[in-house]
Amino acid sequence: MKHKPVFAAGAAISAIGLAVGSAAPASAQPIVHEHFSESRTVIEQEVFPEFCAGIVDFPVLHSWDTRGNFLLVQRGDGLPYALATFQRTDDYTNTLNGKTFHQTMVATEKDQRIIDNGDGTFTIIFSASGVQKSYGPDGTRLFMDSGIFKGEVLIDNGGTPSDPNDDQFLEFVRVITDTGRSDTENRDFCTDLADFIG
To answer: For 19-54, what is each residue's pLDDT tens digit?
Structure first.
């Protein structure tokens, strides 16, 4: 299992039909302005029986907390643009010895351009930037992934270009750029858990 990519949420937000957008000019009208949070604690192997199977031989208690803001505005072209910012922490604890692998992430995701294709679809160019840091049981920083990701997705606008409520994600089209530092690029997440908290 690879480490989670820092910018996975970019496509996820587009996937629910909400274009992750850029800051709007002063004349833009807010459609949605929400604060969100989610916290949960689970034993990974109880939720996902195949979690790190054959590598991690101890129960892993996973606790996470995500908090952020989501802003959706209608610009002068009548199309909905959004901006999402969030912070997330993840703790993976070996329940047998109490050792914890800790991760923090801060990210911003936004649309840079929305193209109305004239066939009931939008092409959305979005960018995501942020940093994820991983720490060992003694608090030492082990890895850092940071950078800027730019991609393109295709959205069905439901025949109502100015109304995002009926939008549907169709496909991730391409990666435009992916730059930055990636300490975990060639690392295996499960092996790291076994090595650092096993």
So the answer is: 333 334 444 566 888 999 999 999 999 999 999 999
Element (H, E) at 82: strand 80-94
pTM above 0.90, yes or no: no
Q: Token pair for residue 81? A: 């643009």
156: confidence class by pLDDT, cuts 50, 70, 90 = very high
Cβ pair 60, 99 in contact under 8 A: no
Q: For residues 6 and 145, what is the distance between their CA atoms, to the nearest angstrom?
A: 7
23 closest CA partner among 69, 92, 91, 90: 69
Alpha carbons 167 and 14: distance in angstroms, whole number: 9
The DSSP code sequence of 103-134 is EEEEEEEEEEEEEE-SSSEEEEEEEEEEEEEE
The residue whose two tokens read 């295996």 is: 188
